[in-house]
Amino acid sequence: MANMSLKKVPMPEQEPNVRNHNFEEVAGGYTEEMAIEEAGRCLNCKHKPCVSGCPVNVRIPEFIQKVSEGDFAAAYEIITSTNSLPAVCGRVCPQETQCESKCVRGIKGEPVAIGRLERFVADWYAKNREVKAQKAEPNGHKVAVVGSGPAGLTCAGDLVRMGYDVTVFEAFHTAGGVLMYGIPEFRLPKAVVQKEIDQLRKMGVKIETNMVIGKVLSIDELMEDGGFEAVFVGSGAGLPNFMNIEGEELLGVYSANEFLTRINLMKAYKEGYDTPILNVRSVAVVGGGNVAMDAARCAKRLGAEKVTIVYRRSEKEMPARLEEIHHAKEEGIEFRLLTNPVKILGDEKGFVTGMECVEMELGEPDASGRRRPVEKKGSNFVLDVDCAVIAIGNSPNPLIRTTTKGLEANRKGCLVVDEDSLQTSREGIYAGGDTVTGAATVILAMGAGKQAAKSIDAYIQGKNQ
Amino acid sequence: MYKIVEKRRLNPSVTWMTIEAPLIARKAKAGQFIILRVDETGERIPLTVAGYDPDKGTVTIIFQKVGKTTMHLDELEVGDSILDFVGPLGRPTELEGYQKVAVVGGGVGCAIAYPQAKALHKMGVKVDVIAGFRNKDILILEEEMGEVADHLYVMTDDGSNGNKGFVTVKLQELIDAGENYDLVIAIGPLPMMRAVCNLTKEAGIKTIISMNPIMIDGTGMCGGCRIKVGGETKFACVDGPDFDGHQVDFEDAMRRLAIYKPQEKQAVEDHICKLGGIVNNG
Predict the structure, then answer these.
(1) Which of A316, A423, A434, B134 has the greatest number of C-beta atoms within 10 Å?
(2) Is residue B236 less than 8 Å (CB to CB) from chain A?
């Protein structure tokens, strides 16, 4: 008999006023008892609507069945048969718009906590089992993956399972891409990411850091001299957008990329690390996405007395996950909605002293379907801040596009690919994730990595027949 | 890990170091830079490439001890390794199409001016090098620059080598004497590059400068290295590091370079404290 509670088993969490002073993980994770209880809410539907909501098709009811039986190791095997990074997905996937949005239990009450269960299984396995390094029979074909973020790691994981000799090239000194430099420790502990990466290494994936493809080696060189028969480009959307308003050069104006990288990758907040970051008192974060929430919550943890999200539309239009907005509010982040910066102010030494904003109102819907914000004339006011973080999105990095002949890109600089195969305009070169879609989510990038791995396999097998 | 294969002190605060990095050595060109991280807790710092040998597979950097990272780097010896070393980053200097070039280096900037002069010399271009230092005790690369320059002029601020004056004094003198340079390359501290640019703007000579702002990744991702050029925002890591000196907003660049001054000072003091030593500022 299923557990008919309308609510999910609550997630243990650090108190908001405690956690906004530390970088430890906000959500503690289910205990075995909690997991079994929550798994009991799954009705094990025959038509499995949840699976259709998952970009990597995790066999959800099957793994939850195993959890309810207390066979967590079996649950892990089921998840990892289609998902290389379960501990990551269980933490950062927007389940509310994917698997959980399709859950039958969600019609009346809350859906099954699929994300929390996935996280529980991955964490349980990492803690209780020596991860097996199952190596597939080598098939003698080499594939290169450019970028070690979620798209690249997933593609590499799937290919190595098929027996390919896979090398991942990463520009930074640490593999993981946005999982390492972007998403903060308190939402996705770096040790969790590292464990997933170590697992891929054990399976035979080679990872070469400090390799900026397009500079030290071109994609053509990888294919001609390196013996790679195919290349997957998952280099992300790494070029930060600015607003092009007066004062953006002032000291204390950071792109979200820089702010988050200093904190997450370079550990500027930790004693003993050399990378500096300004001591901030009052911070305005411009933007309404998950990155903006991450930056705001980091600023609070750095010790800022006041942190304000400045967003030009209303809360309803915010692209951030509901949970992130909720967490930010709990931690004391203020929201200035329908507000747009027009100018950043500074002192004679160039340090930020304030941000002039204008109030907005919503007009007619624009191309994105969201109501277009329009300035309210004469409503200008100044926010008292000494730091501004610009989190209004990223564009794809042009490095690969400009150094690879015949690689087609669209007006925005995103690589153009065939929708089904993810092949670019060049034979043997595939691409996926933010470098194709522009800034999106971890799981969509993973889905693309998976799709590309399948196409690359078909391509190489077809060529060698 | 990237092994240090050669090291020598050029003066008490400037060190020459050659590092094993075969892939970078194969691709590097004059004007490009590398980013290094000494150890796990270290920061990433950009350094312009001072030399490269594709046959030996080595890259040379020349750096001045100005902060904790460069001090730490200077403590490493031949046989030790640097944890991370990535490049070549940025665009190479465009050296094609000139007949007579004045290469102007200020202090440790000569380390970067030298490979430019060498590359031009190899291309058969006439090169005059003007090198400026505070005093004669901290001269670097005099012999090397002399080998690739048609004329080498070494200036000292205090006149201790017999040639008193800033590099601009000599450059003005040469231009006034009728030297018809079609390009000036100026590399050194921002105030020195600004002074050169003011002069060459007046004289109507195209001037390339090499910027060295604060950056993290060096691939366009962080945007920390943004500078104003001709009223537009540019990223030094991908659009530069070379820029048209007559277009660069020096005030802005100087302010941005000083952003972490208090933290840097503290880090140096802590570092010296740990060593129990006395700092030598050269």
Answers:
(1) A434
(2) no
For residue B42, the chain A residues in CB contact (below 8 A) are 274
Q: How far is CA A413 from the centre of its chain?
A: 20
* Conformational region of residue A274, where left means phi above 0, alpha means psi within -120 to 50, and beta covers everything else: alpha
Structure tokens at B108: 């440790």
Taking the C-alpha atoms of residue B144 and residue B155, their distance in angstroms, rounded to an integer, is 16
| pLDDT at B279 > cutoff 80 | no
pLDDT, tens digit, for every residue of B10-68?
A: 999 999 999 999 999 999 999 999 999 999 999 999 999 999 999 999 999 999 998 99
CB-CB: which of B42, B222, B255 is closest to A258?
B222
A21–chain B Cβ distance below 8 A for any pair: no
Q: Which residues of A119-155 are buried (b: 16+ CB within 10 A; e: fewer)?
A: bbbbbbbbeeeeeeeeeeeeeebbbbbbbbbbbbbbb
What are the chain A neighbours of B227 within 8 Å (beta carbons)?
Answer: 249
Chain B residue at shortest CA distance from A238: B221
Contact (CB, 8 A) for A21 and A125: no
Min distance A88 CA to chain B CA atoms (Å): 23
Question: What is the average pLDDT score of chain A?
Answer: 94
Q: Are the C-beta atoms of residues A448 and A441 closer than 8 Å to each other? A: no
CA distance B90 to B59: 16
Residue B5, phi then psi, degrees to nearest 5: -110, -15
Q: Find out whether B155 and B130 touch, Cβ atoms under 8 Å.
A: yes
Asked whether the beta carbons of B23 and A216 are under 8 A apart, the reply is: yes
Per-residue pLDDT at B276 exceeds 70 = no
Helices (H), chain B: 22-27, 68-75, 110-122, 142-148, 167-176, 190-203, 236-239, 250-257, 261-275
DSSP state letters, A320-380: S-HHHHHHHHHTT-EEE-SEEEEEEEE-TTSBEEEEEEEEEEEEEE-TTSSEEEEE-TT--
C-alpha A231/C-alpha A169 separation (Å) is 11
Residues forming a β-bridge with B89: B33
In whole angstroms, what is the distance from residue A66 CA to residue A408 CA? 46
Write down the pLDDT at residue B277: 54
- B44 touches A at CB < 8 Å: yes
In eight-state DSSP terms, residue A267 is: -
Spatial distance between the Cα atoms of B84 and B88, rounded to a whole number of angstroms: 13
For residue B143, the one-letter residue type is: E
Lookup result for tokens 């969201």? A370
Chain B: residue whose CA lies nearest to A236: B221
Determine, for residues B263 and A212 on separate chains, whether the beta-carbon distance falls below 8 Å.
no
Residue B2: closest C-alpha in chain A: A210
Q: B229 Cβ partners below 8 Å, 6+ apart?
A: B239, B243, B244, B247, B248, B249
- Alpha-carbon span A136 to B41, nearest angstrom: 36
How crowded is residue B176: how many other Cβ atoms within 10 Å of its Cβ?
9
In sequence order, what E strands does A213-338 have? 230-233, 239-240, 253-255, 282-286, 306-310, 334-336
Q: Do A210 and B222 touch (CB under 8 A)?
A: no
Residues of B in contact with A389 (CB under 8 A): none
Closest CA to A119 of A189, A62, A49, A177: A189
Q: Model's pTM, two decimal places?
A: 0.93
The full DSSP string for B190-222 is HHHHHHHHHHHHHHT--EEEE-----SSSSSSS
CA A397 to chain centre: 17
- Of A438, A391, A378, nearest in space to A411 by CA: A438
Q: CB of A447 within 8 A of CB of A427?
A: no
Contact call for residues A397 and B221 (beta carbons, < 8 A): yes
Tens-place pLDDT, residues A386-435: 999 999 998 888 889 989 999 999 998 899 999 999 999 999 999 999 99
